[in-house]
Structure formats: structure tokens, C-alpha cells
């Protein structure tokens, strides 16, 4: 049984206002001056020019070009999400195409129910859903459920796409575009350029890595470079799958950076809500939920303009987010993302906006944040309402997993808040480290039961 609660915008607003407290006596706003930048040695980088191949594959065709050491007729990546009918995430080939007894082959393939697999990350610090491979090779039907078994199944690794698939199953992402170059033949195998982190939240530093995949399928980390330190205090809202925070130039002022990152995150939320609306409609959700998701996307367009104006006021230009189009997902994937991005991240974003609306020393920022706080609280309520609709449609195992992830993400947030720049606290009204911890602690019992226990684990 899920621990979800169907919170309304009114109840969330009352909760946030009660913990944020009364409007303080505010001193006149002053931007002050930023200290001169330090003279620092340049950060190490990875030379992208040495990469010669594009090993990218879309999520919908992740197995495209992947070759088993012993060729197969059919290869599929399944999501182990507790359903009676396994979900095929992507596949290549034709099941049982060369089987002597196709009926028996298909029956055996359909009967495979694995409970372990490779980690398919949904959020950096918390939990994962397992994926595993199934295949047919003439009359042989089998599965691959561990990274060691995957290395054995794919060896000898003969091409960059197979090497890149191995790297992705180890928890790394590939930066993909038509012009991307992220692989090269090297020694007895391939070097793959990959990344981790999305730049928003503690533990989400954006890093690039060079990993070597040997002919026998062993993945070895060769180099790691920090590209951009994450903002541990960003009120992330609903981050779409595949989004990586770019942020403004390094010479931006603390206030400029704060609002530029907020503008980029607001802009990224637009396709996230449009995708949610599309998926809710596809799965027959109530029309009111679909409409509210579309309205939330329109809200985020307005928020982007507001945050962009503030970023430019403080001398920073927001980056335009690149969010790849993704196919419609199953109910479990929708529910899991909603638990993380909606019930935790959006809810904290609404709480932080409520704090800014009362504590920003700049009256113009307070006015903007009052409108944004109202909208973000509506978006948080939408997330809880989506959870109340979708989670009863899942199995008990799926609901238990989602409850656990929701608590783990909230627990990570409880211990992951860092100290913002003093100008961001005073002028923009963002909560200090101590205040953010107090606010989160005050709402955790109501919103995320069990998060304190998960924090101690």
C-alpha cells in the first residue's frame, strides 16, 4: 500500500506559510559589490577532438548496433518494475525468428520474470529500477541480469556502439547529437566519452569521464573532469529526463547566476509538463489532470520570462535548455518520475518560493516570487494529485518501490542543502543553510513520512 497523500494547493500553501513564518522587517535592498575573481589555475579538461566516432543511440533505439559475441535473432531491454507483464523498453530483431518451434520459443520468452538487473538511474543519489536483457538465438531463450554477465554476453566487443551500451548500463550518460563525437578505437577496445550529473542539487556536479571498454567487456574509468559544480540549493521544480543544467558564464554575479539558473530550470519545466500532459492523456487520466499539466507548462513559460528579466538585471544571461524528445512511458515510469520531480523537488521549489516571497529584501523580487510561489504550490499539488491517480493502478511491489524512492530523495534533500551566497539570502530571499534545514524538517513528517529514517540509514 502506498503512503501517498492527496495534498491540495490550499493545504500545501497553509503548511508552507506556517513554517516560513511572518514577514520580517526588511532592510533596504542593496546589491553591494562582488569580490574580485581569484586568480586560479585553469581546470583540467578532456580533449574532445581525439574522439572520432558517434556512438549515440536514442532511448527508443538503445540496442541499435549492439552486437552479442554470439549473434542473436532478437535482443530486448526490459524494465524490471514488478509488473506481471514485463515492459519491453527497446528491442532489435524478431523474437524467435529462426526457432524450430516458434510457439514454444515465444512461450518461454514471455514467461521470463527476472527480479535483478542493471541499475537504470532516475536520480543521482537515490534509487533505481533494474533493467535486464532477454534474447532468442534459434531455439535458445535466455536473459542477462548482471554487469558481469553482460560483459560475457557481449564479448568480444567489436564496435563503439556496443562499448557505449556497456558504459550506459554502468550508469553513465552520453552527450548526443548528430554531430557528437564520443568514441574512438583505442588499444584492445574503445574509449567512450560520457557524463554524470545534471548540475542541480547536492551531489549532482556535472562531470565528464573517459572510460575504456576492453575487447572482453571490462569497463575501466580512465579520467574524470569536473565540468561544472552543481548548485546544491537550486529549487529544481520538474526536471525533464535528459536535461542537464548549463548555467550562465563563470563570471556572473551570485545573484545573476541564481536567477539565470532559475530561468533555465523554469524553461526546462515547460517540456516536462507538456510530456506529462501527453502521457496522462495517453493512459486515460482524468481530463482535469491533463488540463492542469498543460496550464502548468504555460505557467513555466511566464516564470521563465520573469527569471530571465531578473537574471539580466543582475548581469547574467540564462542558457536555453536542450531537452530531447522522449517517447510515452509506462505508468510505473511516470509515477516514479512524478514522485521524485513532483512530490519532492517541485514541492521544495514551492516551499523555497514561499520563503522568498516573504524574505527577499528587494520589493520587486518579493512581488515576482509571490506569483511564482502561488503557481509552484499549484504544481506541487498537481504532482500529489497525479500520484493519487496513478499509484493505485500499480502493483504493490511498484508502490513500495516508489514510496522508498520518495523517502530516499527527500532524505537526501534534508542533508544536502548548502549555504547560498549572502546576497542570494538577503536580496533574493533564499533560505540560508540553517533555515532550509529547518523548513524541510518542519514539513518532512507531513509530506514525506519515513524520510528522517532514510536519512539516518
Automatic annotation (TrEMBL):
Transmembrane segments: none
Classification via SUPFAM superfamilies: Ferritin-like
Keyword Signal assigned: yes
Xref: Gene3D superfamilies: 1.20.1260.10
Signal peptide: 1-27
Keywords per UniProt: Signal
Keyword Signal recorded: yes
InterPro entries: Ferritin-like (IPR012347), Ferritin-like_SF (IPR009078)
Protein's name according to its UniProt entry: Ferritin-like domain-containing protein
Record organism: Pendulispora brunnea
